[in-house]
Write a structure and sequence with these properties.
This protein is an alpha/beta fold. Helices cover about 35% and strands about 20% of the residues. It contains 6 helices and 11 strands. The strands form 3 sheets. A 7-stranded mixed beta sheet has the order 5-2-1-6-7-11-10, sandwiched between helices. Strands 3-4 form a two-stranded antiparallel sheet. Helix 1 links the parallel strand 1 and strand 2. Helix 1 packs parallel to helix 5 and helix 5 packs antiparallel against helix 6. The radius of gyration is 15 Å and the shape is globular.
Length: about 180
């Protein structure tokens, strides 16, 4: 099974963070939520407090297969400004590990140059920050080792796409049926 790191910042969109965690854990993967704030409790954009499994300074990501960024504001800004995180993402991108981002967070990938010539999506109105991307009009898209999604409404599709990539279409359909998802 894969190891997935989900990075949490104050102001993150809670649904975009927790929905993929839930779906990936249902599929049997090890998911570790990681606070970039230096504290275990992260407060989301809607005031929901999330308890992270780890602090960024305590992980090296060497065992990670997927590195996931939820969106939300100002959470996305905090992710993009976190030098330890962006350094790790650059290293993992170069290694060919899967990098996933939803809503506003694909803009971080655009700023890092990861989207050049790749299909990508983000929260509507932020497409100009997907530097070099071939912007699509779908809920979620994968291109190479990059997976992006539009926003809260695409959070289940995003999680299922990651399961499909990691485990195949049959497992993604199994999880879709298990959660009674009609999308």
């Amino acid at each position: 099974m894969a190891k997935i790191y989900v990075f949490l910042a104050d102001g993150c969109e809670e649904v975009e963070a927790m929905t993929p965690v839930d779906i990936l854990r249902r599929a049997g993967h090890t998911v570790c939520t990681v606070s970039i704030t230096g504290k275990e409790i992260v407060t989301g954009a809607n005031g929901i407090r999330l308890a992270a499994d780890e602090l960024l300074e305590n992980i090296d990501g060497k065992d990670g297969d997927v590195f996931l960024l939820p969106g939300g504001m100002p959470g996305t800004l905090h992710l993009g400004q976190c030098e330890a995180l962006t350094s790790m993402l650059k290293e993992k991108y170069q290694e060919g590990r899967r990098i996933a981002a939803i809503c506003a967070a694909p803009t971080v990938l655009g700023e890092l140059g990861f989207l050049q010539g790749r299909k990508a999506v983000c929260y509507p109105g932020m497409e100009d920050k997907l530097t070099g991307a071939d912007v699509q009009n779908v809920p979620t898209v994968s291109d190479g080792n990059i997976t992006t999604a539009k926003g809260v409404g695409a959070a289940i599709d995003f999680g299922l796409e990651l399961v499909r990539l990691l485990d195949g279409q049959d497992k993604a359909l199994e999880i879709k049926e298990q959660i009674v998802y009609a999308g």
